[in-house]
Amino acid sequence: MKYLIGLGVVAMSVAGYFLLAPSPAVVTVQSAPVSQAPAEPSSEDLVALKRESLPMALTDTVTLNDTVFFPRMRIMEYVYVSATPDVENLQSFVEGRAETLCLEARDLFGADVTLRNSFEGPGGNVLRRIYLLSEDCQRFY
Question: Taking a C-beta distance cutoff of 8 angstroms, is the pair 130, 94 a contact?
Answer without folding.
Answer: yes
